[in-house]
Each structure stands twice: as C-alpha cells, then as structure tokens.
Design goal:
8 helices; alpha/beta; seven-stranded mixed β-sheet; six-stranded parallel β-sheet
Length: about 300
C-alpha cells in the first residue's frame, strides 16, 4: 500500500513555512491511516494519502509576510495532521502554518528530534488534562513503549509517583525512565497495582489500550486516561464509572500550540525528556517500517530519513 510517488513541489503561502524534511517518525496512527481505518475521514481528500504526524528538518522557505522567529536553514521539528489537504510528514517537503513549527532541541539530531513532537505533545496533553498535584500516584500501562516512556519521564518531572508495568526484560528501561515502582505486565495488572496501592492510584494512563478492566486499579474519584488515534480497531468506549472520571487524549487538541511544542523542546534540551529511537530507515523502506511496527516489540520509534 505504501509506495514512493512524485508530487508537485509545494510552496509556503502567507503565514506558512516550508520544512525540508530530514526525518519522519513512524507512529501507530500512521499504520491506522494506511490500513483503511480512516477511509471515511479521508473522503474528499485528494490522493495520494500521505501518512506521518511528526517531522524534523530545516526551514527552507518562508511565506510572504509571515511573522516567525524561524530563519532559513535552521533545524526545526513540527507536528503534522495527515488528514488535512496538505497530507502528512512522509515527504521531502512539508508546508505548515508557522505556529506549528519550532526550533529542534539544541544538540539533538534530526532522527531523535522527529520522535518528539507528536508523542511529546500527547504525553504533555495527558498530564495537563489529568491536572494531578505533586505527590499523586500515576499508573502508566504500556510504559516500555515510546509514548508510555515519555509519560513516565514527564510524570516524574511533574513530581508524581509513577507506577508502571513492564515485562522482565523491560524493567530496567522503565525504571531508568523514572518509574518509582514497577509491576509485571499482563492481564492481571490492575490487581497487581491494587496490591501495591490498596486504595487505588489517583490516575491511570492506558497507553496500551487495555480497556475498562484497568478501572479496578483507580481509586474512587480518580481519573482514567485513554488515548484516541482516530478510531483504533477494537477501541473501547467508556463513560464515567464508579466515580472515576474518563479523559480522552487526542493530540490534535495541541496542534498549533507553539507554547506547548516549545515546552517539549526545552524539556528535551534539559535532559528531562530523552528521545527514544529504535532505528532509522530510508524513506523508501516505509512499508517495511510499518510491518516492523505492527509486529510489536519495539522500544523506541522507527524513523524514516530523507
């Protein structure tokens, strides 16, 4: 389904900048786009459909009259919405509103920077919506993955006590990310968390999309955070249940939030947020990257290079 095509070169209009893409992360949302899950949402969008939600590269064109702190040739990173008419980030050139693009973190190469915008913003949006006080207990299910790892790192930075799940081979990685407590992953993970925290945790982030049975780990009055990537197969539907508030994290809510993307940049520069890269592949091998992601077991993002 994924193949290389030639398209007309896009140009920046007023209020826009063009990024010469050097790296684009491969995310689960990209595989959903390719699989046909988004077919209805793509009605009316001209083909070809271009996946990709986050990119890193350099500014090589600034639209007429565009007010921006960015300069030609500067390394940048950006979040991209592939369901829009301009398509996604798997492209040599991407034109975006200037406010969607920020400087890449100093000392970070293009490949590492490409893993930060979408996953970093998703993690930060989750914490912002949970609004937990320092010292609160946050459980992260799926902590060994990229998004889960970023949530653990940012949760620790926010002063939270983070309990995470992990397979034995991943426990050291999850603890290195900042988890104060680690329980074995598996179908009974909610019971394992309750055994450690008899009153239940203050909030739980279900990065692994396990579903409603994780509510048993959350205290009365606590919060369950679920993640929406545009209609995941087998996705669960939840209402507020047993006094537990359900929050849905959908990263387009932070698209265009330059302040939040700058925050992710600063956290990466300070060493709070450490990019997670599995490996880099040439962009022409995107189909293989999707197969590898769907096979599971990665501990970091695959990144396509241009």
């Amino acid at each position: 389904m994924l193949r290389v095509v030639d398209l007309p070169e896009p140009h920046a209009r007023p209020g826009e900048v063009r990024v010469r893409v050097r790296a684009a992360a491969v995310n689960p949302a990209d595989t959903l786009l390719r699989s046909g899950v988004h077919a209805r949402a793509l009605a009316g969008v001209p083909v070809p459909y271009i996946p990709g939600m986050d990119i890193a590269g350099v500014i090589d064109e600034i639209g007429p009259g565009t007010e921006t702190e960015l300069s030609l040739g500067e390394p940048v990173m950006a979040i991209v919405m592939p369901l829009g008419p301009a398509g996604g980030g798997y492209a040599e050139y991407v034109v975006l509103p200037a406010g969607w693009v920020v400087h890449a973190p100093a000392g970070t190469d293009h490949v590492a920077a490409a893993t930060l915008p979408m996953n970093g913003l998703t993690a930060q949006l989750t914490l912002d919506r949970l609004a937990l006080a320092p010292g609160s207990v946050l459980a992260v299910i799926g902590a060994a993955g990229t998004l889960g790892g970023y949530l653990v790192q940012l949760g620790r930075h926010a002063g939270l006590t983070v309990v995470a799940d992990a397979a034995p081979a991943d426990e050291a990685l999850v603890r290195l990310s900042g988890a104060a407590d680690v329980v074995a992953r598996g179908s009974d993970v909610a019971e394992r968390i309750r055994a450690r925290y008899p009153d239940g945790v203050d909030a739980l982030a279900d990065v692994a999309l396990v579903g409603p049975r994780l509510l048993d780990a959350v205290r009365d009055g606590g919060t369950y955070a679920r993640f929406r990537s545009g209609g995941e197969p087998g996705g669960h539907e939840l209402d507020d249940s047993g006094g537990i508030t359900v929050r849905t994290t959908f990263v387009p809510g932070y698209a265009g939030r330059t302040d939040k993307l700058h925050q992710i940049r600063r956290l990466a520069e300070s060493g709070v947020l450490i990019p997670r890269v599995a490996t880099a592949l040439p962009a022409a091998e995107a189909a293989d990257a999707h197969r590898r992601l769907e096979a599971g077991g990665l501990r970091g993002r695959l990144v396509l290079t241009f």
